[in-house]
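Message: A physicist's question: would you kindly supply an amino acid chain plus fold tokens?
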Amino acid sequence: MKSNRIFIAWLRWPLYVRIAIIICFLLLFFGQLIVILEPKQYHTIFDGIWWALITVATVGYGDFVPQTMPGQVAGMALILIGASFVTAYFATLAAAVFSKQHHYVEGKVAFKGKGHVIIVGWNEKTNKLLQSFQTIDPAMPIVLIDDSLKEGPLLENVHFIKGHGTEDATLRRANIMSADTLMITADQHENEVTADMQSVLTLLAAKGLNPSLYCLIEILTDRYVKNAERAGANQVIHTSDAVNHLMVEHFLLKEQLMALKIKRNMTLHKQITIIPVPASLAGETFLTALHHFLEHHVIIVGVQKKEGPMMNPPFGYELHPEDELISF
């Protein structure tokens, strides 16, 4: 029974480790054997091990060569036995490395770092969020948990974990006990109620494993806002309220700007002014216009286009002659 347990324990070791141990045993055995068979040619055990290593690797430097028939027979036996193990070792090692890399891409490798940010759910919002984090701090470690992706996004410092955020095993593979922040986004593949339910369950699972974890959660419906707060959310992002607020604000701004189109030289509440794009700035970037007007103590906050206002456009936006600038 004891020998059987030892054999089972031996089989549990990785294959490349077992092959490496066998190769080391062969080198020691044949290194000692060749010293016994040809003591005049091989003076020390190290000489024998060196010869065995060069022989089994099929390099053959020729600095040590068996001179007697017993030594040559030992050399042939070493080549027949050892070369196959060496070939199997490198093949197994390469396969193990490839398998490890494949498992990493598929999200099967656990994260071992600390102080990281965990984001649950892959969607366009998550994609933009990851890009923002890479702009803020490219070295920030981020773990992405998602069950819909077959392979993780190839983004620097982003570790992908495939699984559902409501499962303890998935959260443990993300090393949630050592995480700094958890961000839960709504599942875009489910209806609003189901997505909110899963988000709250994910929050409960995370707080159960790490009660001190700082958690932000996206909620789509009113009914689950209180549930998220009771579950321990530090911040609830109510998407419908945020979108509604932005749409109303932009609608009201559009109405104000349309009134200014009629009375170009007037200001609304003495705050908003429309300025035509100077000919010298046509074709320049929005950033160039900002610097130009700041020198004249004028703050530009957006661009009035034909199709409507664009607030806080990208710095690289190219101004057109028909555009107008929005100033406070």
Notes: Residues 2-105 form a domain with the Helix Hairpins fold (CATH 1.10.287.70).
